């Protein structure tokens, strides 16, 4: 609710308030500037700006002395404890950011393969005081849980081209397999060439997953340019496998996911000629805590690579 002073309050600059508090202690423009690492003229400028916002003088300044006006004394009485509380809140946040504590929720796509569980296990061994939870994220919305704060980070398949997310580290690259119903003409093959995908309707992730990401999991064309039929859209890995088992299409899965989801009515045939799949840890660009950095290091150590600083796509 705006009580009439809201816009002025929102436009206040912390530096102006800090300058006033230091000046109230020093009662000297030069020493105030030294403490704030600014020039004396800058101190005067900040004070004038604050007085302009308030609409009255806060400091009386002569050639011999500097003193607070009655209004300045009143402001000081109210401002000093409030500023102290604000500083304490920032200090507490900084301390929390340096400590690996609390809870960590990590999303995984479809199934938690060995690389994911190894990273989670290593992190828990290093930081047993952190409550760690693994949460499945759906194929239809791989990035939404990170944005909504439902998970602190997620392990998803590349590509990721989301400006508000940071990436890293990446897991090792893995070859693709094609999930097919037992009895499909290709089911008995030792491998398939990527060009042969033109003969299979590919089960694809559903919206709201971005179109570029859906196309990467179910390419619309072979590397040689042949069109690939689009099969049903599914929201989860298990929906996809059930759709495959019902002979409604094939589904591209990386080898570790295929190994984790072996079932009697589905076979997994290696596909040659596609760029390998790769998992990556993603988190929101504005989220950076010691706990998340520690988990990123655990991911890097679990897969045998150094965890780089996260980057924006």
Automatic annotation (TrEMBL):
PROSITE patterns xref list: HTH_LYSR (PS50931)
Segments for region (Disordered): 212-233
Entry keyword annotation includes Transcription regulation: yes
A Pfam short name: HTH_1
SUPFAM superfamilies: Periplasmic binding protein-like II, Winged helix' DNA-binding domain
PANTHER family reported in the protein's UniProt record: HCA OPERON TRANSCRIPTIONAL ACTIVATOR HCAR, TRANSCRIPTIONAL DUAL REGULATOR HCAR-RELATED
Family under the similarity heading: Belongs to the LysR transcriptional regulatory family.
Stated name of the protein: LysR family transcriptional regulator
Organism, scientific name: Streptomyces iconiensis
Lineage of the organism: Bacteria, Bacillati, Actinomycetota, Actinomycetes, Kitasatosporales
